[in-house]
Automatic annotation (TrEMBL):
Source organism, top-level taxon: Bacteria
Source organism of this protein record: Solirubrum puertoriconensis
Record's protein name: DUF305 domain-containing protein
Residues in DUF305 domain copies: 124-198, 243-297
Ranges that cross the membrane: none
Amino acid sequence: MNPQPAACVRGLKFWLMRLNLNNLAANFWPKPPYTHTFAYNTLRTMRMKSHYLLLATLATAVACTRTDQVRSNPERVIDRDSASTDVAIAADTAALATAAPTATPTAATAGASGKSTLNPAVVEAAANLTVALNRDAQRLSEVRATGNTDHDFAAMMAEHALGAVDLARVELRDGKNPELRRMAEQIITERPAQAERLSVTAKRLAGAKANYNTLDATDPYKARLIGVMRIMKQPLVSSEKIDVDFARLLRIHTQSGIALTNAVIAHGRDAEVKKLAQRLTTEQTASLAQIDTWLQRNER
């Protein structure tokens, strides 16, 4: 324990008081939509300040209780299953910045003064990326399964394509790497049209005969769909670098897409759907190789 507990208590009280005052001001600020940029920027500043103050409070607690321990690995696992997906989907950008799993500092990231060295913008971006993937997983799980492999693939893959757009938007807003930004721009340009085509295919197959059991986890196709969701639930190991975190989550997203297309290639019966799935598999495999190459060069 810290040899000066009274000083620790005073430090914690100081940061908590500032945090409460800032949150109180933010709560009384007019709510969106805003007609003036000033109002939006002011609220954003207050919420970002709340995030920083929360980090400072947690860092002070860490400094008080763990002065004799320093962790050598600064990476932290962001567990997307630790918070309700429904809550994450409903959260707005400001709420994402205060997500506890991404904001918790370790002794390695806290300075001797007790203040966190984490960049709030980086933490917020990591939270935004994580929630974007959570949102995609939630949309896939909410697709109304008819029991027809081809219809259900088309409906799920349409949502999956839009999920990539959500991730890409975060990268374009917060990322800096030119190669990843070009990749994000390509996703935003191409995926909406892909999603539309898949939606049209799903409508065409809306009355198709069921050929798998949507409630039986041992059914070969259903088991593959469960595998897709398991891939998307992988936790993000945050690098505290926006571009690296984007690449890691895009890799998870792409892996799940390949698993989904392989499922319908193996069990689908519609020739047009299987042809489309084969093309998507080829494209996504190439994208995965590009992501892996980038990560090998930039991850460390």
